[in-house]
Design a protein that fits this description.
The complex is a heterodimer of chains A (167) and B (502). Chain A has helices at 2-17, 30-34, 80-84, 138-166; strands at 27-28, 44-59, 62-68, 73-79, 94-95, 98-106, 117-127, 130-131. Chain A is of the alpha+beta class. Classes of the chains: A alpha+beta (167), B mainly alpha (502).
Chain lengths: 167, 502
């Protein structure tokens, strides 16, 4: 029994120092990340956001993906393979993939001209994106027609008043 | 102001409103091209509203009326307001603004080429609305009055007064109409070059051609017209490209130079570039302030190396000086990472501004140069014997004498700007913001720059939104047209005779 307990204790000790089993940092939003304590430069952070726009060329092996939070977005430097996981990017007619990134935060990245960025170690798509319908509101058609009629009447009236003054 | 004069002014304000409506054809067509049916209806409403409002204003006076100088000043001030009110209509229907007031804020910011924004969810905005936002920079950057003059549409008399009331002191060509057309010609050249260059950059970055050309066109307008809007919430940070920065800096510098200087260079007189007092002042300021910013950034150690500090410092000094307002840092980084020295350098650059008769805002390089020369002249005269006759000259499109009138006029505008900057800072502080941030934001608004510490947002107090709108409007028109309106409406001065009505 004592020997079993000793082996369990040793296993737990090994697990606590093993990177594979180490606790992940607390998940943040891009907005929180932008205000992160500057002393945490170079630390590993975990955050998620909506992929927006498109992935952009960084170098031969890497892409930039911008992830949006509540109102702020952060650029993530990731490999081509990591970027390939992201299928949908947010724009007017799409809600982009919700992507989780574990990576190193750089408040002034020395590799990228002092940019505020995250270098991804792990990228995971949490929720797939989808298209968004933006139907035209019927009342807008009515409003446009009514205003057009008012404007046309006014200009016609202006023309007639001018013609009357000339004659 | 007599009712008769008000009717004449309203008649011509109607013309500007109709012009804004016509300009909305571009975002309307964009909406149709991208099948943004709701966006198309927003611009159908915008155009129809411009027709209805413009038509009503035109009915205020049905005879032909020649514009007096007084009418021109009032027309310019009111015309900009009316244009903003109408330009805000389709934006307010977009779903990207929390209220009509917020849409009006962006319309004022766009037309005055300030670039401060209270938009929400910009990354999901329709292309048609992004097109309109950036077009307001194009219309306002060259000037609403300039746009009307270049088309010579319906304006009877008062052309020179209108041109000058919009903050332009110089004519490029003998005829004001030709001058305004030349301004559009230069703009078309630079926006065209910028669009082609940035399109190439965007293709290299991997954008699809459709987004690539739109982003290139919008950023070219925003950079050359020194406006500062961007199609994504990250602004210039979105592209992560130093080539993008280089192209946009080229456009910013082109936009901050006097249109007269462009004309001189176009005519083959390249020596004007280095002889002109404005370019010398600009070059000196940019060099010194960039150095100061780099030193400040190096001290904060927020950026890893000296090269990065120089790049960040120089880019933001150029953005501030030109009044563009593109930034490659987050708003909070102004206070957390830029530090005191660099922040002050950027504020000085914003306050100083670009050249007269350009798309830039601020006090202007010519006025600063004239005032500095005057100070030097005063010192020389104090030292020289009483019998000495001293004449001071400066070179600005030719040799000119430095007279008390010239110095006085420059000093008055400088005082008006400084008072506006300080007042805006006090108002921001009164709303509870830090003094440094409040001062930064006030200068940014009044000098039509657009850099932001984060104060400007959809959630900022309504009173502050209104005050910043006033600052952007007054700064763009360099105060004269605004003060004229105050004189006519509040003090009751008569437009015809300039005396208070009894």
């Amino acid at each position: 029994m004592r020997r079993l307990g000793m082996w369990i204790a040793l296993a737990l000790l090994a697990g606590s120092v093993s990177p594979a089993l180490a606790a992940e940092p607390e998940s943040m939003t891009p907005d929180e990340l932008v205000f992160i304590d500057r002393a945490r430069e170079g630390e590993t952070v975990l955050f998620s956001g909506e992929a927006i726009g498109e992935d952009l060329h960084a170098d031969a092996d890497s892409r930039w993906v911008n992830l949006l939070g509540e109102s702020l977005a952060i650029g993530v430097y990731m490999t081509n393979d990591q970027a390939a996981q992201i299928a949908v990017y947010g724009d007017h007619t799409h809600e982009g993939d919700r992507v989780e990134v574990l990576g190193v935060i750089n408040i002034g990245c020395d590799q990228h001209g002092g940019e505020f960025d995250v270098h991804a170690e792990r990228v995971k798509v949490l929720v797939e994106g989808h298209s968004v319908e933006r139907p035209a509101a019927p009342w807008k058609s009515i409003a446009a027609v009514l205003l057009l009629i008012v404007g046309a009447v006014e200009l016609r009236l202006l023309q007639r008043l001018r013609d009357r003054k000339l004659t | 102001m007599r009712f008769h004069d008000l009717r004449i002014v309203a008649h011509y304000v109607g013309l500007f409103v109709l012009g804004v409506g016509i300009a909305m054809v571009v975002p309307f067509v964009t909406a149709l091209a991208y099948r943004e049916w709701d966006g198309a209806l927003d611009y159908a409403i915008g155009m129809a509203a411009a027709l209805a409002i413009g038509g009503a204003l035109r009915l205020a006076y049905t005879r032909d009326a020649k514009l007096s100088h007084a009418h021109a000043l009032a027309l310019t001030g009111l015309g900009w307001l009316a244009a903003s009110l109408v330009a805000a209509i389709p934006l307010s229907l977009s779903g990207n603004y929390l209220s009509y007031l917020d849409a009006l804020f962006d319309a004022v910011s766009g037309l005055t080429t300030s670039g401060l924004t209270v938009v929400v969810d910009l990354d999901h905005m329709a292309y048609s609305h992004n097109m309109w936002r950036h077009l307001t920079h194009l219309i306002g950057g060259q000037g609403i009055v300039v746009a009307a003059l270049s088309l010579a549409v319906g304006l009877r008399g008062g052309a020179l007064s209108l041109y000058q009331a919009e903050g332009r002191d110089e004519r490029i060509l003998p005829n004001v109409m030709y001058t305004t057309r030349f301004i559009w010609f230069v703009t078309a050249i630079y926006v065209g070059i910028g669009t082609v260059a940035l399109f190439a950059v965007n293709m290299y970055l991997g954008m699809n051609p459709s987004r690539g050309i739109l982003h290139a066109f919008w950023i070219s307008i925003a950079a050359y017209d020194t406006g500062g809007f961007g199609p994504q919430s990250m602004n210039a940070m979105y592209y992560k490209s130093y080539i993008f920065e280089i192209v946009s800096v080229f456009l910013m510098i082109a936009g901050t130079l006097n249109f007269n200087l462009h004309a001189q260079v176009w005519r083959g007189d390249r020596s004007e570039l280095w002889r002109n007092i404005e370019t010398r002042v600009l070059a000196f300021n940019i060099l010194v302030l960039s150095g100061l910013a780099a030193v400040g950034l190096a001290a904060t150690q927020a950026f890893p190396g000296s090269l990065e500090a120089v790049r960040k410092g120089a880019y933001h000094i150029l953005s501030a000086h030109s009044g563009t307002g593109h930034q490659t840092i987050y708003p909070n980084q102004w206070t957390t990472d830029f530090g005191g020295t660099a922040l002050v350098a950027v504020m000085l650059a914003m306050a100083a501004g670009g050249a007269v008769s350009s798309t830039a805002g601020g006090i202007k390089a010519l006025r600063l140069g004239v005032i500095v020369k005057s100070v030097i002249q005063q010192v020389k005269e104090a030292i020289a014997p009483k019998s000495a006759v001293m004449v001071a000259r400066y070179h600005h499109l030719g040799e000119r004498f430095l007279t008390p009138d010239v110095t006085g006029a420059a000093a008055i505008v400088l005082i008006l700007y400084v008072v506006t900057y300080i007042t805006g800072g006090l108002v921001g502080a009164a709303y509870g913001y830090g003094a440094g941030e409040a001062m930064f934001e006030s200068i940014s608004a009044a000098a039509n720059v657009g850099l932001s510490t984060g104060i400007t947002s959809a959630t900022m107090p309504t009173g502050l939104k209104l005050f910043y709108m006033f600052q952007m409007w007054a700064g763009r028109l360099e105060f004269v047209a605004v003060l004229t309106l105050f004189a006519y409406f509040i003090l009751g001065l008569d437009m015809g005779r300039g005396r208070r009505k009894s």
